[in-house]
Input
Amino acid sequence: MLSEKEREQIREAAKREIRRISEQIRKLESKISPVSPDCSLGRLTRLEAMGEKAVNEELLARDRLRLLRLDNTLKRLDEASFGLCIDCEEPIPLPRLLIRPESLRCVACASDRG
Ligand SMILES: [Zn+2]
Output
Protein backbone atom coordinates (compact mmCIF):
# COMPACT_ATOMS: atom_id res chain seq x y z
CA MET A 1 0.00 0.00 0.00
CA LEU A 2 1.42 3.35 -1.03
CA SER A 3 1.63 6.15 1.52
CA GLU A 4 0.15 9.58 0.89
CA LYS A 5 3.66 10.91 0.42
CA GLU A 6 4.51 8.26 -2.16
CA ARG A 7 1.30 8.96 -4.06
CA GLU A 8 2.20 12.63 -4.04
CA GLN A 9 5.65 11.82 -5.49
CA ILE A 10 4.05 9.74 -8.24
CA ARG A 11 1.55 12.53 -8.96
CA GLU A 12 4.41 14.99 -9.40
CA ALA A 13 6.32 12.55 -11.62
CA ALA A 14 3.22 12.01 -13.78
CA LYS A 15 2.60 15.75 -14.11
CA ARG A 16 6.23 16.33 -15.06
CA GLU A 17 5.98 13.67 -17.77
CA ILE A 18 2.71 15.16 -19.01
CA ARG A 19 4.36 18.56 -19.39
CA ARG A 20 7.38 17.07 -21.15
CA ILE A 21 5.32 14.97 -23.54
CA SER A 22 2.88 17.81 -24.31
CA GLU A 23 5.85 19.94 -25.31
CA GLN A 24 7.21 17.09 -27.45
CA ILE A 25 3.82 16.68 -29.13
CA ARG A 26 3.71 20.38 -30.00
CA LYS A 27 7.16 20.13 -31.59
CA LEU A 28 6.25 17.03 -33.58
CA GLU A 29 2.99 18.57 -34.74
CA SER A 30 4.80 21.60 -36.09
CA LYS A 31 7.21 19.31 -37.98
CA ILE A 32 4.41 17.37 -39.62
CA SER A 33 3.24 19.56 -42.42
CA PRO A 34 1.87 18.00 -45.57
CA VAL A 35 4.50 17.21 -48.19
CA SER A 36 3.22 19.09 -51.19
CA PRO A 37 3.22 17.09 -54.43
CA ASP A 38 4.25 19.86 -56.79
CA CYS A 39 6.97 21.59 -54.85
CA SER A 40 10.42 22.21 -56.19
CA LEU A 41 11.97 19.42 -54.13
CA GLY A 42 13.55 16.65 -56.14
CA ARG A 43 11.87 13.27 -56.16
CA LEU A 44 14.34 11.65 -53.73
CA THR A 45 14.20 14.59 -51.37
CA ARG A 46 10.43 14.31 -51.44
CA LEU A 47 10.57 10.60 -50.63
CA GLU A 48 12.91 11.37 -47.76
CA ALA A 49 10.60 14.04 -46.47
CA MET A 50 7.69 11.59 -46.60
CA GLY A 51 9.72 8.99 -44.72
CA GLU A 52 10.59 11.50 -42.06
CA LYS A 53 6.96 12.51 -41.79
CA ALA A 54 5.93 8.87 -41.26
CA VAL A 55 8.50 8.52 -38.47
CA ASN A 56 7.27 11.71 -36.82
CA GLU A 57 3.67 10.55 -37.08
CA GLU A 58 4.57 7.30 -35.37
CA LEU A 59 6.33 9.17 -32.57
CA LEU A 60 3.35 11.46 -32.26
CA ALA A 61 0.91 8.55 -31.97
CA ARG A 62 3.08 6.97 -29.28
CA ASP A 63 3.34 10.23 -27.32
CA ARG A 64 -0.42 10.79 -27.51
CA LEU A 65 -1.07 7.30 -26.16
CA ARG A 66 1.38 7.86 -23.33
CA LEU A 67 -0.25 11.19 -22.52
CA LEU A 68 -3.62 9.45 -22.32
CA ARG A 69 -2.21 6.82 -19.98
CA LEU A 70 -0.61 9.44 -17.77
CA ASP A 71 -3.92 11.31 -17.57
CA ASN A 72 -5.57 8.07 -16.47
CA THR A 73 -2.80 7.58 -13.93
CA LEU A 74 -3.69 10.88 -12.28
CA LYS A 75 -7.34 9.77 -12.12
CA ARG A 76 -6.53 6.37 -10.63
CA LEU A 77 -3.88 7.60 -8.23
CA ASP A 78 -6.14 7.77 -5.19
CA GLU A 79 -7.69 4.36 -5.70
CA ALA A 80 -6.64 1.65 -3.25
CA SER A 81 -5.60 -0.65 -6.09
CA PHE A 82 -3.27 1.92 -7.61
CA GLY A 83 0.33 0.68 -7.72
CA LEU A 84 -0.64 -2.99 -7.70
CA CYS A 85 0.32 -5.08 -10.70
CA ILE A 86 -2.84 -5.92 -12.65
CA ASP A 87 -1.51 -9.43 -13.35
CA CYS A 88 0.06 -10.71 -10.11
CA GLU A 89 -1.43 -8.05 -7.78
CA GLU A 90 1.93 -7.52 -6.10
CA PRO A 91 2.91 -3.90 -5.42
CA ILE A 92 4.86 -2.30 -8.26
CA PRO A 93 8.12 -0.92 -6.78
CA LEU A 94 8.09 2.84 -6.22
CA PRO A 95 11.17 3.55 -8.40
CA ARG A 96 9.38 2.00 -11.37
CA LEU A 97 6.26 4.05 -10.71
CA LEU A 98 8.35 7.20 -10.50
CA ILE A 99 10.03 6.49 -13.85
CA ARG A 100 6.88 5.25 -15.57
CA PRO A 101 3.91 6.41 -13.49
CA GLU A 102 1.53 4.82 -16.00
CA SER A 103 2.88 1.30 -15.32
CA LEU A 104 0.10 -1.22 -14.86
CA ARG A 105 2.36 -4.20 -14.35
CA CYS A 106 5.46 -5.05 -12.33
CA VAL A 107 8.70 -5.59 -14.25
CA ALA A 108 8.37 -9.39 -14.18
CA CYS A 109 4.81 -9.42 -15.56
CA ALA A 110 5.58 -6.69 -18.10
CA SER A 111 8.50 -8.70 -19.50
CA ASP A 112 6.43 -11.91 -19.54
CA ARG A 113 4.18 -10.22 -22.01
CA GLY A 114 7.15 -9.50 -24.27
ZN1 LIG B 1 3.19 -8.55 -11.66
Remarks:
- DSSP finds four helices and no strands in the chain.
- The mean pLDDT is 92.
- The longest helix spans residues 43-76.
